[in-house]
Design goal:
Number of strands: 14
Largest sheet: 6 strands, mixed
Distance between the termini: 71 Å
Shape: globular
Structural class: alpha/beta
Strand order of the largest sheet: 5-4-3-2-1-14
Radius of gyration: 22 Å
Length: 328
């Protein structure tokens, strides 16, 4: 456990074994142990680590019905995760065995739709919940569904209040405001953006929210794809995604990273007291807000496509019929 708000955290910059959930889980086992052995108490894995982000994959054009696109989607679906399910149980056991708080990016399958999620585990091996990405970006929309406001958790853990915002959700100001309103202190940003501008966005969020930001991306080469898909990876060089993972403090100062050249686990020791110090001159949901002018309403109700009202029991139906007969 953390003492006096000081904690060592880890950001895992590594590649999935794309479309291979078993091999990707082997990487999780090793990387989680490596981070724990180095003294980390909070370990973050990238967006869609289980079992692959769809960089350059050929799913066809919107509305296309070609068989190759359907076959690729089937492989993606089969390497995805039921929540809850056996993979979630394995992840919980990994967290328990290593005595770490662990947050893992995954592709969840629910009915026949895929969702980009982050999964949260404590150091006692409990699965605490998930966050579903609210808006898939560009090509992601071909293969991922949209989350809703029912999965926007912030957990009060020993090292601080922890939540996650996935990739370009970080460009949604109202999402950020929602997380700040929940008191987030360690802001996790698993992502798939390796552009130079992403670093500046992470520094901005740290400054805006006066929180620690842990941004975590994969470092992916063409060789990480299944051999029969390599020809579809339309990238000029061997590196498909160059990472750029980084850890930033509440004043926007870089504590670790960014790394654009290799797989690596990034570490930093953080003091949650720095969050309080940062709020001295800026608290966007406190003394630096104007609720008399601006207001945000957040709908955290789960959105269901189908609502089934169960039929009355046979006894109650018979009673209703008797009442009808009596009234006649």
């Amino acid at each position: 456990m953390s003492e006096k708000g000081v904690t060592k955290v880890a950001v895992v910059q590594a590649a999935s074994a794309i479309f291979n959930i078993e091999k990707t889980m082997e990487k999780v086992v090793k990387l989680a142990k490596d981070a724990a052995d180095a003294g980390a108490k909070l370990v973050l894995f990238p967006e869609a680590f289980l079992s692959g982000y769809p960089h350059f994959l050929d799913f066809g054009k919107p509305g296309a019905t070609n068989s190759k696109a359907r076959d690729t989607f089937k492989r993606y679906f089969e390497s995805s995760v039921d929540v809850p399910g056996p993979i979630v149980t394995q992840l919980a056991n990994i967290a328990k065995e290593n005595k770490i708080f662990m947050v893992v990016g995954a592709i969840e399958r629910a009915l026949s739709t895929l969702y980009c999620v982050t999964l949260f585990f404590n150091d006692e091996g409990q699965f605490l919940g998930k966050h579903r990405k609210l808006v898939p970006t560009t090509a992601e929309r071909l293969v991922w569904g949209r989350g809703d406001g029912s999965t926007l958790p912030v957990f009060d853990w020993p090292m601080g209040k922890v939540g996650a915002v996935i990739c370009w959700e970080n460009y949604m100001p109202l999402v950020r405001m929602t997380m700040y309103s929940k008191g987030i202190q360690i802001y996790l940003a698993p992502n798939a953006d390796d552009t130079d501008g992403w670093l500046h966005s992470m520094q901005h969020i740290a400054l805006e929210g006066r929180c620690f930001v842990l941004a975590c991306n994969q470092f992916i080469r063409k060789s990480d794809y299944p051999a029969d898909l390599v020809g579809k990876v339309d990238c000029e060089n061997d590196i498909v995604c160059r990472g750029g993972s980084v850890i930033v403090n509440p004043l926007g100062e870089i504590l670790a990273g960014p790394n654009y050249t290799s797989e690596e686990i990034l570490y930093a020791t953080i003091d949650i007291g720095d969050v309080i110090k940062g709020k001295f001159d800026l608290d966007t949901v406190g003394h630096y807000s104007r609720p008399d002018i601006f207001a945000l309403t957040v709908n955290e109700k789960e959105q269901a496509n189908v609502t089934i009202n169960r039929a009355q029991s046979e006894d109650s139906v018979q009673t209703s019929l008797k009442n009808i007969n009596l009234s006649q």
